[in-house]
Write a structure and sequence with these properties.
OB fold (Dihydrolipoamide Acetyltransferase, E2P); 2 domains; two-stranded antiparallel sheet; about 50% helix; flat
Length: about 300
Amino acid sequence: MSVKQVLQARMKQHINEMVTTNPMIGQLNTQFTSWLLGSGLTGAEIIKMIDTNMDAVIQPVELSSALEKTTGTQPPGWVINGLMSVLDMDKDGNVTVADLHTYFETIGLPSGVEEVTPETEPEDEFDELDQELQDDARKQAEELIRQQEAEKQRLLEEEEAKKAAEREAAEQAKREEEAAKQKPDLILLNEDGTHVDHNRFIEVLAEMKLGSERREAIAQSPTQVCRIQIQSIEKTLLGKGSLKNGMTIVGKIIGEQGFEIELQTPFDATELVNTFQKNQTIEAEAKICDWNSGRRRAVLEAIQLDRL
């Protein structure tokens, strides 16, 4: 097995590991491969377009700029990070021109560089170098086999862990179902029959232990007017319907508790939201639509926005 073949095998193994760990990486790799093969460019031309400062090291900003130049759209940061992780075969945090060459050869992209073969080759002068290359290729092949065996064992352990997790999830769902049957219906109303405000609603959600119980409560959330002090504004990542491609305001809801919340705003309100400033207080007509378990904060859907 030649050194080139060993490197290609290592690249294939690396990509397989990445895809197994994160299926989204597989979609990025497929789209990136399609773009490369359909670009009509050779590997050398693509590298020249990406490595603009010709230092033989590919920076994320260089890859992003090249994709934006050819597609007309700037890719999100997570897309660039995903592609960089695919190209970083040795996982040392750096993507080199050599890594790109190996990737191109692995997917079958013509390099565009003509290999020059001398008419006469002084074998006696290169015997030692040739032997070193063969030894290196053998060691890399042995290491690849070892990695493949380790990967098989890892996948086996992962499958066992997955089955155990599924059993635990089924048992937990059963426990939640039994607990829900024993628990009285949740009524989030004041003594006069009016709905509690968002602060009290969020306080109740924070005390809940079961996800099913919290979802049931959120389904009863009414649309109410509240005031929010802005901490930061960011792009909504998983918005649905009118919230898709909108903005998310992270802030504290004004009240006795002052809970931190996320307020997702409609896409057509983006121009208004971009005029808001940190520490500014706004008024929103909104309802609680979800719960961010990682941040332990409520997610609200804005119906109407006004600055104060």
